[in-house]
Design brief:
The chain has 208 residues and is of the alpha+beta class. The protein is built from five helices and ten strands, in the order ββααααβββββββαβ. The chain has helices at residues 30-33, 48-59, 72-81, 90-102, 185-199; strands at 2-4, 10-18, 106-110, 118-122, 128-130, 137-139, 144-148, 151-155, 171-179, 203-206. The strands form three sheets. It has a four-stranded mixed β-sheet with strand order 1-4-7-8, with no helix packed on it. A four-stranded antiparallel β-sheet has the order 3-9-2-10. A hairpin with a 2-residue loop joins strand 7 (144-148) and strand 8 (151-155). The longest helix has 15 residues, at 185-199. It is globular. 42% of the residues are buried. The model has no long low-confidence stretch (mean pLDDT 97).
């Protein structure tokens, strides 16, 4: 279902999730929203070493992960710190909680809005997509992306608007953008992620 192009420093892991109801009818439990605080108890914590390793991984291919193009996990740290990171839905909140504390960027796409087959690889020159409802686009050249049959649809910086989750979402595909320099951090982040989703009533299946 998903192939990964050769990459010297990427340690990625992906899985599918099926929720017991549409996300619009599945408000996040209080214990999950509580994990969006920077001082919440979590099995992982991020630091400058993690941040540096993720950025170095994203530089392979020529992308510059700085400024507005920095990894999404870094935005979460800032949002959690100023209190603006709040609950959205079970899928997004679980993603944000794990990304915040692990320091790994994570992508979540709606499987019913994307089209198989899926591939992880570096986007070519000229590639771009709209990443929000306002129609803003991101230049993807040199950036590791998740591709579906229609083109790039997610990455460690900003996911595409066309495959984002919404109130009707029942099935998702998640990609953890880890780095080999961080040892087993990707696997540990997934183990916690799975625990959170299953506690919320979802079914998780790791992709080979």
């Amino acid at each position: 279902m998903l192939t990964v192009d050769p990459h010297p420093s990427l340690d990625t892991l992906s899985f599918t999730t099926v929720f017991p109801a549409s996300l619009g009818a599945l408000p996040s439990p209080e214990w999950l929203v509580a994990l969006l605080k920077p001082d919440a108890s979590a099995p992982l914590s991020s630091d400058d070493t993690v941040r540096g390793a993720v950025r170095d991984m994203l530089r392979h291919g020529g992308y510059k992960p700085t400024g507005r193009g920095k990894p999404a996990s870094e935005y979460l740290v800032r949002a959690a710190g100023d209190g603006s990171l709040g609950g959205i839905n079970t899928a997004v909140d679980a993603c944000n909680a794990v990304s915040l504390h692990s320091g790994l960027p994570i992508s979540v796409v709606d499987l019913d809005r994307a089209t198989a087959p899926f591939r992880v690889g570096i986007a070519p020159e000229g590639a771009q997509y709209v990443f929000n409802a306002s129609g803003q686009s991101i230049d993807l050249a040199g950036l590791l992306c998740l591709f579906d049959a229609e083109g790039p649809c997610a990455n460690a910086v900003k996911d595409a608007q066309r495959t984002k989750t919404n109130a009707d979402t029942r099935r998702t595909l998640t990609v953890l953008w880890g780095a080999k320099a961080l040892g087993d951090r990707t696997a540990r982040a997934f183990a916690w992620y799975r625990e959170l989703l299953e506690r919320a009533g979802a079914t998780v299946e790791r992709l080979p």
